[in-house]
Amino acid sequence: MNTPTVPLVDPQVLDRIRGWRGYAEAKLGFRNHWYPTLNSSEVAEGQPVPFQLGGEKLLINRIDGKLYCIKDQCLHRGVPLSRKLECYSKDTISCWYHGWTYQWADGKLCDILTDPSSKMIGTRSLKTYPAQELKGLVFVFLGDIEPTPLARDLPPGFDEADRRVQPFRRVVNANWRIGAENGFDTTHIFIHKDSRLIRGNQTMLPLGFAPNPNSKEPLFETRHTEGGNIGVFDLLAERGVPHFEGSVHGEVVRRAIHGGDKHIAGQISLWMPGVLKVDPFPDPAMIHFEWYVPRDADSHWYIHCATKVVEGPNADAEFAEEYEALWKDLYAHGFNDDDIWAREATQPFYQDDWGWLKEQLFEADACIMAWRKLASEHNRGIQTAGR
């Protein structure tokens, strides 16, 4: 029997939204998509690790090197299995409360330690989710359909053969959509005007961009990857006018910091189910990817990945050393920390859903509207409460 779903978004708000209702409904993200979760190194053999995704509590385990993901909730009385992990065989997990025992491979209730003669045995199964590894990340398919190829939910270039990845995961107390729109918003670079990355990496970043009044070219473009994913390119930086001075009443009150002549963030794109690509960033030799993974209605996992093509037998170790020595401070904290507090400052305005109607977007936000519409039309389902 399916658990009744609970409306997450105020129905009065949904009734007034046109063109992107599906996105507005997706407070917990999209169903039937792949999401990154833990780092591969965090899941040791036979050591289950809890993770919350789309409002659901999951357990991820490694058995004989293979990854498994099971719902972290006993069918009997609904307690989390992770409260006290008890695995009496490598292929099963038992509930600490009454001994209900499930197989990791298919979730089947295979034994009940307190009543081995129960007729329930073999007739019930706990929900399981496909899991696989790529570039040091554990991806979980949060869905009910036959899982699509992982490539369909990846941004272009992430799975490039020699591309080395340094992931960094944090909890941000804002809905995942606030995160996605913060990253994709071209003029939000204003909050980075004092970032130590600008001087520390000799980069150049304007205060913002404005649409070119003499151009009729669109400020966004929808594209597909070879793997079958779909995303929106924000072309404001390419087709707009950069501004290096900010004026109030005609008087210049702020100038952009010019750290050097390195050009970054030439192409910015946002892909389903919510992953940003910035090419190049934070250095001309690197590409930045960041996922906004829904945790619950009011928070998301911010998984940002510094990447670089490095060849040779020691490539992973060399890039890891470079990241720790330079990029973790200048980029992960010196730049991306700005985005975290901006999202958390935005969250209260949208928390009751009415912010989606009260907001007053301007011309430079065309790419955000394009993303909302694309996500509404091309998702494979809405993640709902009560699953």
Fold and architecture overview:
Helices cover 20% and strands 31% of the residues. It is of the alpha+beta class. It has helices at 11-14, 21-25, 176-184, 196-200, 236-239, 315-333, 336-350, 355-358, 366-378, and strands at residues 33-39, 49-53, 56-63, 66-71, 92-94, 100-103, 109-112, 128-129, 131-134, 137-142, 163-172, 203-204, 208-210, 220-224, 230-234, 241-243, 245-248, 251-255, 262-263, 267-271, 275-279, 286-296, 299-309. The model has no long low-confidence stretch (mean pLDDT 95). A hairpin with a 2-residue loop joins β22 and β23. The strands form seven sheets. Strands 11-23-22-21-20-15-14 form a seven-stranded antiparallel β-sheet. It has a four-stranded antiparallel β-sheet with strand order 2-3-4-8, with no helix packed on it. It has a three-stranded antiparallel β-sheet with strand order 1-10-9, with no helix packed on it. The protein has two domains: 33-133, N-terminal domain of TfIIb (Single Sheet); 148-378, Alpha-Beta Complex (Naphthalene 1,2-dioxygenase Alpha Subunit, Chain A, domain 1), CATH 3.90.380.10.
